[in-house]
C-alpha cells in the first residue's frame, strides 16, 4: 500500500468524503486510490484487499509495462465508451492474441492515437456488460423501493382499518350496554304498566259492579212476543212472599240479542228452553228491596214458570244477583272448582 496521500479518485476523478469506502492499489509504484463500491465494485474476499491491483496496473502488465493513463475504472466507463472504436473499424482490429495493428487500421487512424485505441477496444465489451448490470441493479433498486412504498401504504391502511375496527368494537360494546339497560328498563316499565292496567281493569270492574248493584237477573222465563214483564215480576214477588209495588221497579227488560224463532221450535227439553230464553233484568229503586227478593229466593228454590203463569211447561226459574262479565266468569270458575273438589 502506498503512503502517498491522494485526494481524488483515479477512476471518476471526484473527491473523497468521510462516508466513502476507499481502496488503494497494492503496487508501491502506483499509489492510486479508488471508490471501492462506485468505481471498482464488490471484491469476493476481504482478504484480497492487501493484494488488490488497480485496472491500470493490470492493463500495463498485460501490455508489457506500457502505461495507459486512460485505463478506466468503474466510474469512467461512459467516457471510455465514447472513445471506443466505431463498429466499421472494429472489423479491422486484431484479435486479443495479436499485439500489432493491421495495415487497414493504420490507414484509418492517426499514428499517434493507434496505440491508445487498442486497449480501449479490448475494454469495450466488458464495460457494456457492466453498464447493463448497473442498469439492472438500478432497476431492481427502483422496484424494491416501489415495493417498499406499497408495503408502507398497505401497513398504513391496515393500521387505519385496525383503528376503525377498534372504534367499531368500542361502539358496539357501548351499544350493547345501552341495549341491556333499555331491556331492563323496558321489562321494569312493562311490569309496571301491566300492574297499572290490571289495577285499572279492577277499578272498572268494581265501578261496573257498583252500577248494577240494584239489579236482579231472572233466568228461565219463557219468552213470547206479547209478554208483560212488569206483571210477571209482580206475580213472582207475590209467589216469593215479597211486597213489591210498581214504584219499586225502575225498569225491567230482557238482556241480550233476540233469538231466532227456529231455535225455539227445535228445542224440546226443559233445560233447552231455559237455556235459549233471554234472561230478564229488573232494576229496583232501592237496594234493600233487591236484597229482600234474593233472600226470599234462597228459602224457596222450586219456583217454576207455570207458577208464575208464564208458559205451559214447568221450567225452573232462578233469581240471581246481576254480575259483570268478569265477575260472572269468576263465579262460574269458582263453582266448577267447588264441584270438582266435592265442596257444597
From TrEMBL:
Residues 63-111 are annotated as: Disordered. Gene3D superfamilies: Zinc/RING finger domain, C3HC4 (zinc finger) (3.30.40.10). This is PHD-type domain-containing protein. The lineage of its organism: Eukaryota, Metazoa, Ecdysozoa, Arthropoda, Hexapoda. InterPro entries: Znf_FYVE_PHD, Znf_RING/FYVE/PHD.
